[in-house]
Amino acid sequence: MRTGRARRVLAAGLVSLAAAAGCGVQPSGVITGEAPPSGRVVPATTTTLYLVKDGRISAVTRPRDRPMFPADTLALLADGPTAGERANGFTTEVPPEAGPFSVTARPAGHLVVTLSAPAGELSAPAVGQIVCTAAATAPESPAEVRVTVVGAGQSVGPRNCPGGAGAP
Predict the structure, then answer these.
(1) Are 168 and 131 in contact (CB under 8 A)?
(2) If you count Cβ atoms within 10 Å of the first and of the last residue's Cβ in the chain, which end, N or C, has fewer?
(3) DSSP code of 32?
(4) Which stretch of DSSP H or E encloses residue 160?
(5) Is the overall model pTM greater than 0.85, yes or no?
(6) Phi-psi bin for 157: left (phi > 0), alpha (psi -120 to 50), beta?
(7) 11-25, 47-61, 105-119, range with greatest mean pLDDT
(8) Over 72-140, what HEC string results?
(9) Can you name the residues that pair with 106 across neighbouring β-strands?
(10) How many Å from the N-terminal Cα to the C-terminal Cα in the chain?
């Protein structure tokens, strides 16, 4: 009896093995498809800049399809608020003639922003906008970054943007 049962178990195992091995997948030739996707993957990103609302400097976040250089972010200040931002009461104190900007990183969380207008003639809110926006572009916490604004032989700072809000 044992041999009959062993044969049946062996036969059932072989049938199962044959069924699993030949599960209906047939060999085929090379299957070609369309071209794979190409180009860069562009992550959605945002840019933070500081505009003026009710006399105070406030952070505004704008969506971007690419990261921006710090000087490009500062140029947005001179361009002024978008129509939607204006409708919400935002303005800018940074004059258009302040651009173009350049930003130089110095050791220990210090940035130097060079502009095309005399730095000493900027209003306090304009300096605050520049300082806070430049600090927001740094990898460190904006409150830890010190910013000096330089233009036409004049210098303001170094200053920081306390907590990322308010005029420095």
Answers:
(1) yes
(2) N
(3) -
(4) strand 154-160
(5) no
(6) left
(7) 47-61
(8) HHHHHHHHCCCHHHHHCCEECCCCHHHCCCEEEEECCCEEEEECCCCHHHCCHHHHHHHHHHHHHCCCC
(9) 110
(10) 96
